TrEMBL record:
Keywords: Membrane, Transmembrane, Transmembrane helix. The chain crosses the membrane at residues 17-39, 45-66, 78-98, 104-124. This is ATP synthase protein I.
C-alpha cells in the first residue's frame, strides 16, 4: 500500500524543511491577503501582506542559513542558527522602534497575519522535520 505523496520528494534534509515551510508560509500570506481584501479592503490586504510577508522573510532567512550551513559546514549549523536568530531579533527590534508605520497600516491585520504565519510555519517545520531521517549513531 502506498503512503501519501510527499511534497518535494527529491529534496533532502534542511532543504526539504525549507521548501515545505516556505510553501506553507506563502500560501498563508496569500490567504491572509485574500481574506483582508474580502473583509476590510485593500488596506487590510496590504497590512496582512506586510505583516505576513515580513514574518515569512525573517523565518526564511534563518532557515536558509541552517540549510546552507548543513550543506557546507555542518559543524557550524547550530552556532549559525543561534547567531542568525539573535540578528533576526535585533533587526526586528530596530524596525519596531525606529520605523514609523504609515497611515495605511492596519496593525490588527499585520499582527494577525504575522502570528498566523509563525504558527503555520512552525507546524510545517515540525511536520517536515519529523520526517527527516537523521542518524543518531556516528558513522564508523
Amino acid at each position: 500500500m502506498m503512503g501519501a505523496p510527499t511534497l518535494f520528494p527529491n529534496a533532502t534534509g534542511w532543504r526539504r524543511v525549507l521548501l515545505v515551510t516556505t510553501t506553507a508560509g506563502v500560501v498563508t500570506v496569500l490567504i491572509a491577503v485574500g481574506l483582508g481584501t474580502l473583509v476590510s479592503g485593500s488596506l487590510a490586504a496590504a497590512s496582512a501582506g506586510a505583516g505576513g510577508g515580513g514574518t515569512l522573510a525573517f523565518s526564511f532567512l534563518s532557515l536558509a542559513l541552517i540549510d546552507w550551513a548543513d550543506r557546507h559546514a555542518p559543524h557550524l549549523a547550530i552556532p549559525l542558527f543561534m547567531i542568525g536568530f539573535g540578528i533576526k531579533v535585533a533587526v526586528l527590534a530596530v524596525v519596531v522602534l525606529l520605523v514609523r508605520p504609515g497611515d495605511w497600516l492596519d496593525s490588527g491585520w499585520a499582527l494577525g497575519a504575522g502570528v498566523v504565519v509563525v504558527l503555520v510555519w512552525q507546524a510545517a517545520e515540525i511536520l517536515s522535520f519529523s520526517q527527516m531521517r537523521i542518524s543518531v549513531q556516528p558513522d564508523d
